[in-house]
Write a structure and sequence with these properties.
Layout (H helix, E strand, L loop, with lengths): L1 H4 L4 H12 L1 H22 L2 H23 L1 H10 L2
Helix pairs in contact: 3-4
């Protein structure tokens, strides 16, 4: 909706189809990067300084996985609310 208000037409939305097809790969890579970040922070002794950033990143990544795996149910719920 925001994109439409900014003047971006429906042809721009077709790009999201390609991005959605790669969502599992993008999420897998982001999950691996978050796991490596935890490991490096623990290894370097900076875990205390970065703990809340890492917790936030982990929470966002987990939320993304939950949304991807429950996309059909979320869509059905949103359609029922219309």
């Amino acid at each position: 909706m925001v994109m439409m208000l900014l003047g971006l037409g429906g042809s721009w939305l077709a790009v999201f189809g390609r991005i959605a097809a790669a969502s599992y790969y993008v999420l897998a890579i982001s999950t691996a990067l978050v796991a490596v970040s935890w490991f490096v922070a623990h290894r370097n002794g900076t875990l205390a300084n970065l703990k809340w950033w890492l917790v936030g990143s982990s929470a966002i990544t987990t939320l993304a996985w939950v949304i991807v795996f429950n996309e059909a149910q979320i869509n059905d719920y949103l359609i029922m609310q219309m």
